[in-house]
Amino acid sequence: NVTINGRTYRMACDDGQEDHLTELGQQLSDTIEELRGQFGEIGDQRLTVMAAITMADQHSETEKRLRQVEGEIAGLEEARAALVERQERTEAEIAESIEALADRLEAVASRLNGTDPLEGAD
User: Fold this and answer.
1) Rg of the chain, C-alpha, whole Å
2) For residue range 72-83, what is the model confidence (pLDDT) as tens digits?
3) Which of 21, 61, 77, 93 is the most interior residue, by most CB within 10 Å?
4) pLDDT digits (tens, 9 = 90+) for 84-120
């Protein structure tokens, strides 16, 4: 059972959804009471319709914001992927530079020792 605007309605729902249905009914009742406070007694049906439209508008705004946030997330994921790719390229370049530097150091060390750096490099 759900109570909305002081009236109890019998409703069926899936198992485990009873509390959620009760909360939704309470939200609708609260919205009706807010509107009653703003507009006075203008009739239950009119207040209920106004409450439904108000809640539908809130739902619409929430969906709009969700789409915006999903777009922001997609943009951040693309930026992250680009940064990861850039980091991988940079790491590869650094590894190549280190390898080239190691080869040069080895050549310098060999010259200082008077040996050919290519000797034994078969």
Assistant:
1) 35
2) 999 999 999 999
3) 21
4) 999 999 999 999 999 999 999 999 999 998 876 565 5
Strand stretches in the chain, DSSP E = 2-4, 7-9
- The helix-helix angle for 18-39 and 44-113 (nearest 10°) equals 120
* Nearest Cα residue to 1 out of 66, 11, 105: 11
Distance of alpha carbon 36 from alpha carbon 6, whole angstroms? 13
| Spatial CB neighbours of 64, under 8 Å, sequence gap ≥ 6 | none
The CA dihedral of 105, 106, 112, 117, to the nearest 10 degrees, is -140
